[in-house]
Each structure stands twice: as C-alpha cells, then as structure tokens.
Amino acid sequence: MEDYRGVAEDIVSMYHERRAFVADLLLEAKEEDAERTVEVAQMLKDFHKENAGIAVESRQVVTDLAKENRGLIFEAQKEDKERKAEVARLLQDFHKENAEIVAESRQLVADLAKENAELVAEAQKEDAERRAEINSLLKDFHKENAEIVAESRQLVADLAKENAELVAEAQKEDEERSVEVAGIIADFARENEDLKAETQGLVKDIATENTDLIEGFKKESQERADAWKGFLGIVQSGKGIKPAEKIAEVPEVPVVPEVAEVPEVAEVAEVAEVAEVSEEEGKEFKDQILIVLKNNPDGLKMTEIAEVLGIVNWRSLIPVTRQLVEEDSIRKVDSTYYLV
Fold this sequence. Notes:
Layout: H1 2-238, H2 279-295, E1 300-301, H3 302-309, H4 318-326, E2 330-333, E3 336-339
Antiparallel strand pairs: 1-3, 2-3
C-alpha cells in the first residue's frame, strides 16, 4: 500500500509540475499573441496607408489612360473614315477597270473563236489534201512495190542461175588447179632433191677446202715453229751457250683438229682454235695492232688489220685481239675492232 501511495504521490507531483509548465506556456503564448496582434495592427495600418496611395495613383493612371484612349479612338475613327472613303474610291476604280477588262476579254474571246474557226477550216482543208496525197503515194508505193517484187524475183532467179554456173566453173577450175598443184608439188620435190644433192656437193667442196686450209695452216705453223727454233738456236749460240744448255724442248704449236664429220646442213663453223704465239711475238703484235687502230679511228676488221701488218694468215691474230679486248685496250662491235 505504501508503494502505491508513493507512486500516487509521484504521479500527483508530476501532474502539478506539468500543469505549472503548461500554465507558463499559455502565459508566454498570450504575451507573444498580444505582441503579434499589435505588430499585425501596425502592419495593417501601414498597408491601408500604402493602399490609399496606390489607389490615388491608380485613379490618376486610369484617368490618363482614358484621356489617351479617347484621343486614340478619335484618331482611329478619323483614319477609318478616310480609309472607307479611299476603299470606296478604289472599289469604284476597280469596278470600272473590271468592266473594261470584261469587255476586252469578251472581244478577245470573240476574236479567238473566229480565228480558231478559220484555223479549223484550214486544217480540215489541209487534212483532206494530205489524205488525198497520202492515198496517191500509197497507190504509187503499192505499184512500185509490186514492180520491185517482180524485179527481185527475176534477179533472184538470175543470181541462182549465175551462181550455179559459177559453182560449176569453180569446181572445174578447182579440179584443174588440183592437177596443176600436184604437178607443181612433183616439180618442187624434184627441184628439192636436186637442191639437196647440190647442197651436199657444196658442203663436201667446203669441207675439202676447209681441210686444205687446215693443212696449209698446219704447214705454216710448223714452218713458224722451225723458224722460231732456228732463231732461238742462233740467239743462244751468239750468247756463248753450250749446246747442252740449249732449250731441251720447244713447245709444239697446237694444231687445229680436223673436222671429224661434215653435217648435211649447209653451215661450216669457223676454226675455233689457232696456234699460240710466243709472249714477245704477242706483245709485238699487240703494239702493232694498237698503232694500226689508232691510225684508223673508224675501225678495221681482223682481215684488214692483217692486210695492213702484212700477215698472210689473219687467224694468227685471233688470240692477240681476244687478249686486247679482255684488257679493254680495244673493243669489238660485230666484226669490227676500235681503239678504246
């Protein structure tokens, strides 16, 4: 019970505290409300004062606008009256011009109708004339066409007849040409055999001549070698060299090999290998060839060089000229040699 009593007292105490707090709040609210009432009353007083001033200004503005509006309305009415008069005058002029245009249009339509009628009549007349002319042309065309068809048929018949004659003549000529061609082929075969026999005889003659040339070259090479040996013997004997100290062996000059077999074709190859010359003789030939080509800037062939140097066998110059070409001392164009 005491606990409940304590709780009840606490509740009563809290109630009185809250009541006092609420009373204070109400008092503060009333005070603030009184202050706000005074403030709002002052604001309303100021608003009414400002509103009265605005109302006076508004009345003055409305008066000025009404005055200005009356002036604008008067001017607008005046301008409207002037425009109505001008529009009436323009309408009067328009009706007058429109009546003139209508009259001119009617006259123009009448003239066009008249001119159109004349053109239609003329066109109908020209059309009738053209129809008559076309009918006449068609009649003439059919007549000419019939004549052309008849002529064409006659021409085709003549061409067919002529073609048959030409075919028969061509067949006859073809048979004659066949016989003639066969005779020509036979004659050509005989001539070919004769030419073959003649060519083979010519090849044999060339081979024989080539063999004679090779034999002569061998003989000249051997004579040159014997002369060279004699010359060396004389030189060595002149220097007091004993016979035992002489050159034991003189290299033989290589001989051009003989042609083993002559081909049936009419081509004979030039001799590829020639006799070698000594170093001193080759140097002498080189100097002489350079001098000859220097004196002949237009170039010379090998046979011409040999002729200038007095050499009978021009083939002996082949290795010397080859060396000069390789040394870029001379140049060869086709078969002509020039000094570089």
